[in-house]
């Protein structure tokens, strides 16, 4: 049971209808502005920047481009530039100057088809070089250095596979110094792979039996701690990444939520033990992870194996009747969040009492 009296309250602050389909939304770093990316009814790409002002979202600027946008990130951008990296439906990777609305980096046909997901690292407050990872319908995950026009790492399925899986989700993690960096990759066949970029090798893999909609580490810039994976068929999986057993892999738990596809999850920037899930039924859940008394124990062969904790649902909220496809916590304001849904709306929410956890 959810203790709704003492739980964080999920309060709608602003709601605005859009005349196009949004697929992602991000707060512009160190500002009260947000940027929405999506696709118009004529299959053109659109970028809109909004400013919060007296309980309203006021449009600051708008750019329309040739192809619709599926995903976006500021992860590889510096605070001085705050450029937005996007992946579009034609497989192009572009980094836009949001002041001018023009690209300052562009890779045409970075993938053969749509770029399903994107993540960046090395920009604001991150350690190590700036890099972008893209997930393509062609089954590959590619890592890009914005100073070059070729992928620095190409991860693709073996050519012997009869049916090539689509790559649906990517995320950076374990980047706690200038050398270490891992990526989590998820596929439509349920495969999850953890790849060590420094060692240039596959570190761990598993199959969760349902298509992987999102992967996220609780922090990018610390030694790997935990990771949340969401899937089709209402499943949330959480893995403790501190102890890798040679046979059992990482300890994990799963939970069922929303009675629908879970499009994604986002950890709270100010507290890595709290995250939100985005339901295909238009609802969000706020979870808290409870650590076990011991994070590892010895097995019968005296080899350490991980111990996973438990999840508590702090609160849930029905927001819309359509899937929530984009969500972003404000990195500087605790509890301030924005989201977009397939009902063609962008919303700003306030989540209270998060400081109590």
Structure description:
The protein is mainly β and 357 residues long. The protein has no helices and 30 strands. The protein has strands spanning 10-17, 21-27, 33-39, 45-53, 56-65, 69-73, 84-88, 93-97, 102-107, 115-121, 131-136, 141-144, 151-155, 167-173, 182-187, 191-196, 201-207, 212-217, 226-231, 235-245, 249-256, 262-268, 271-279, 283-290, 296-298, 304-306, 310-318, 324-329, 336-341, 345-351. The strands form eight sheets. The protein has a four-stranded antiparallel sheet, with no helix packed on it. The protein has a four-stranded antiparallel sheet with strand order 2-3-4-5, with no helix packed on it. A four-stranded antiparallel sheet has the order 6-7-8-9, with no helix packed on it. It is globular, with a radius of gyration of 19 Å.
Short description:
By secondary structure, the protein is an all-beta fold. It has strands at 10-17, 21-27, 33-39, 45-53, 56-65, 69-73, 84-88, 93-97, 102-107, 115-121, 131-136, 141-144, 151-155, 167-173, 182-187, 191-196, 201-207, 212-217, 226-231, 235-245, 249-256, 262-268, 271-279, 283-290, 296-298, 304-306, 310-318, 324-329, 336-341, 345-351.
């Amino acid at each position: 049971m959810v203790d709704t009296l003492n739980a964080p309250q999920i309060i709608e602050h602003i709601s605005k209808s859009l005349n196009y389909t949004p697929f992602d939304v991000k707060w512009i770093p160190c500002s009260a502005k947000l940027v929405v990316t999506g696709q118009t009814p004529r299959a053109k790409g659109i970028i809109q920047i909004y400013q919060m002002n007296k309980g309203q979202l006021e449009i600051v600027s708008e750019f329309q481009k040739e192809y619709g946008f599926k995903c976006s990130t500021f992860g590889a951008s510096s605070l001085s530039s705050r450029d937005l990296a996007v992946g579009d439906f034609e497989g192009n990777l572009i980094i836009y100057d949001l002041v001018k609305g023009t690209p300052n980096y562009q890779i045409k046909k970075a993938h053969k088809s749509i770029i399903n997901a994107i993540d960046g690292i090395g920009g604001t407050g991150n350690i190590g070089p700036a890099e972008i990872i893209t997930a393509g319908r062609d089954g590959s995950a590619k890592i890009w250095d914005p100073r070059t026009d070729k992928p620095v790492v190409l991860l693709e399925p073996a050519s012997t596979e009869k049916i090539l899986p689509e790559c649906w989700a990517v995320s950076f993690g374990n980047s706690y110094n200038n050398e270490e960096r891992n990526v989590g990759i998820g596929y439509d066949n349920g495969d999850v792979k953890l790849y060590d970029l420094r060692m240039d090798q596959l570190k761990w893999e598993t199959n969760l039996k349902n298509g992987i909609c999102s992967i996220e580490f609780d922090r990018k810039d610390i030694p790997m701690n935990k990771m949340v994976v969401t899937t089709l068929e209402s499943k949330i999986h959480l893995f403790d990444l501190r102890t890798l057993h040679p046979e059992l892999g990482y300890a994990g738990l799963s939970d069922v939520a929303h009675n629908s596809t879970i499009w994604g999850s986002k950890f709270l920037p100010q507290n890595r033990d709290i995250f939100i899930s985005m339901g295909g039924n238009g609802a969000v859940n706020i979870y808290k992870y409870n650590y076990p008394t011991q994070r590892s124990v010895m097995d019968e062969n005296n080899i350490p194996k991980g111990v996973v904790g438990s999840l508590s649902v702090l609160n849930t909220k029905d927001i819309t009747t359509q899937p929530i496809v984009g969500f972003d916590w404000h990195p500087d304001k605790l509890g301030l969040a924005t989201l977009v849904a397939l009902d063609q709306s962008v919303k700003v929410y306030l989540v209270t009492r998060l400081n109590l956890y």
